Amino acid sequence: MSARRLLRRVAFTAFLAAILAFALFPLYFAFVTSVTPSGELFRPALFPPRWTAEHYRGVLAGLFLRSVVNSAIVSAAVVALTLMLALGAAYALARIRFRGRAAVLFGVLAISMFPQIAVLSGMFELISSLGLYNNLLALSFSYLIFTLPFTVWVLTTFMRDLPIEIEEAAIVDGATPWVIITKVFLPLMWPAMVTTGLLAFIGAWNEFLFALTFTSSNTTRTVPVAIALLSGASQYETPWGIIMAASVIVTVPLIVLVLIFQRKIVSGLTAGGVKG
Hints:
Blueprint: H1 3-34, H2 54-61, H3 64-95, H4 101-111, H5 116-129, H6 136-142, H7 144-160, H8 164-172, H9 177-188, H10 190-206, H11 209-214, H12 223-230, H13 240-260, H14 262-270
């Protein structure tokens, strides 16, 4: 190996290491803060001189676990509803020819461009009129505003790249559109569905504005709101250790999901990039 090639490889490796360190340092800092005793939080150190679990015990002793369960329920419901609705919409937009199909697709995408604050008042009136205020169903349905458009767009693009001969063979065999979607397309679309489903889960898990507006009790709050309210638990000082412990607890499930489905995520993100 030549010296120039070795130098390029070392420089590239150092560049990747710098990016990785920059991306992981906030999580590492949160973990270090969560295991540092309260009296030593403001002493700069990459490694805590003493380790403690007092902050995790403080988080788990309250109603925070209830908020974690609420977030898990809402996020799972959002993923299920998003994928179910987006799969049917993607089939109609990708395989069925009708007038205004392109306009509908661009309209779906345009919906995702509106900021949440722009539709907050209208959503609040709708949630209140349906009697869903302070209910997890309100969050499950309102989150579809930002998860469904992106999922429909991605699945439509993915479904367009599937060979039309597969669908034609199923039609010749007498398959109905529902059978084509569930028995023919669904097994081929798992990579794209896992990718969009995970992104929808992360979006619902981290959502704050709707969760803060549409819930008002500790029994229905989700983790972003619960963490925000931790900062007001004391009027004299902010419990940074407890906040960081809570942040670590809610980040771990997302990391585990990404590690479990990483191969499907890569397949879904690169699908359709090369046509043979």
